[in-house]
Amino acid sequence: MGLVYNTYLNSNQIYGCKNCKTHLANHDDIISRNFRGQHGKAYLFKTVVNVGQAEPVERNMTTGRHIVRDIFCRQCRETVGWKYDKAFESSEKYKENKFILEAELLCKVY
Fold first, then answer.
1. What H or E segment, with its residue span, contains residue 98?
2. pLDDT in 10s for each residue of the chain, 110 residues
3. HEC profile for 32-65?
4. 14 in Cβ contact with 25 (< 8 Å)
5. Whole-angstrom Cα distance, residue 70 to residue 61?
6. pTM more than 0.90
């Protein structure tokens, strides 16, 4: 396996890993701020960078049953949220292949 390079975002507001400041997401990619995670407030993003993904697992969440996988910062390996792989409820399908980042685990990088 070759070297893995981090992606650096160029935007007015960038969210990074609170632990190591690695760029994770662009503010303009937020779909919704109306989410809750284990640590409180969370955001739904259409895309993120510099993350690794765990194996998919089925979870019963407040909005129904989903297949999700935890995502972690590729630099420091800290868990920062999760990715929705599959939603079983038709009203939740918009979440598929989208990412949740928990606000408590993020910092703003300028």
1. none
2. 667 789 999 999 999 999 999 999 999 999 999 999 899 999 999 999 999 999 999 999 988 999 999 999 999 999 999 999 999 999 999 999 999 999 999 999 97
3. EEEEEECCEEEEEECCCCCEEECCCEEEEECCEE
4. yes
5. 14
6. yes
